[in-house]
TrEMBL record:
InterPro entries: AraC-bd, Homeodomain-like_sf, HTH-like, HTH_AraC, HTH_AraC-typ_CS, RmlC-like_jellyroll, Tscrpt_reg_AraC-type_HTH. Keywords: DNA-binding, Transcription, Transcription regulation. SMART domains: HTH_ARAC. Pfam families: AraC_binding, HTH_18. This is AraC family transcriptional regulator. The keyword Membrane does not apply. Residues 179-277 form the HTH araC/xylS-type domain. It comes from the Bacteria.
Length: 287
């Protein structure tokens, strides 16, 4: 299997178009006889049990299992009659198109095999299920803006999948797990992150995660998050004349007065005083 980074690099080069999105609840007697797959498709099992056979190899079909079927695979699928399967799926086709050294390169799916094939285990199934639900809803609608939203959701789906694989890879490696949450905070500092959710992402208890984070990074997780937010707020205060409430909201605080207290605690001055002292004067301001 490709590393999460390699998988991201491959998927980034693909232009993917959905052909069908659906949600299926199987009957107790559901079974598909061996057949050659004709289209690329992704299946996520959300309930029940079953068995899928891919090119002669048997795989369990159960919640948390993710299947990527590619054309040419010989596949047989059946459900456990006492616990019928339920799954989301989408069918798609794609082309590889990317810019390299200012030259556009295009390859067909026959020339560029899809980077996922077979069965995988996912840990963050609820988030993937949510994205599947949204795709299913949008599939029933039409319009150019809806089509654009579907593309965005599809990219988010694959990004969530890659993050899941990455989290599995670093499980047991505490240093890598800490760095994973550190990177996550850098990108998602404006979201309502909690110590509990960060510890869960690292696969550690809250107390153990907090101790290790401070040992490796030098700040507690929440202090680190606070400094990220304050540093971004400093940039906004220097470069813009946005209202304080807008700046507070953009860095993750719903209460501008609480934000002001935190900002002063970290920097020693209020946001307004900081802006007066450090704001960059542009040509437009002079005019």
């Amino acid at each position: 299997m490709l590393t999460p980074g390699e998988l991201a690099a491959r998927l980034n080069k693909l232009v993917i178009s959905l052909l069908l999105v659906g949600h299926q609840k199987c009957s107790p007697e559901w079974r598909q006889l061996p057949r050659a797959i004709r289209h690329h498709s992704i299946w996520l099992i959300i309930k029940g049990k079953g068995s899928f056979t891919i090119n002669g190899t048997h795989y369990p079909a159960e919640p948390g299992k993710f299947f990527s079927f590619i054309p040419g695979m010989e596949v047989e699928r059946e459900t456990d009659p006492e616990q019928p399967l339920e799954y989301y799926f989408f069918r798609f086709h794609y082309t590889e198109t990317f810019d390299e050294k200012e030259q556009w390169i295009s390859r067909s799916s026959e020339e560029s095999p899809f980077p996922l094939a077979g069965m995988y285990t996912v840990h963050n199934a609820p988030q993937l299920i949510y994205l599947f639900e949204q795709l299913d809803i949008l599939w029933k609608r039409r319009g150019h803006m809806t089509a654009m939203r579907r593309k965005i959701l599809l990219l988010e789906f694959f990004l969530t999948l890659i993050q899941d694989f990455r989290a599995q890879k670093v499980a047991g490696n505490t240093t890598a797990a800490i760095e994973l949450t550190q990177d996550y905070m850098v990108v998602h500092y404006q979201e309502p992150l909690t110590l509990e959710s960060l510890a869960q992402m690292a696969g550690l208890s809250i107390s153990h995660y907090s101790r290790l984070f401070k040992k490796y990074i030098g700040y507690s997780p929440i202090d680190y998050l606070t400094h990220l937010r304050v540093d971004r707020a400093k940039e906004l205060l220097m470069l813009s004349d946005y209202r304080l409430k807008s700046i507070a909201s953009s860095v993750g605080y719903t209460d501008e007065f609480y934000f002001s207290r935190i900002f002063k605690k970290v920097t020693g001055v209020s946001p307004r005083d900081y802006a007066k002292k450090h704001r960059i004067v542009t040509a437009a301001d002079r005019n």
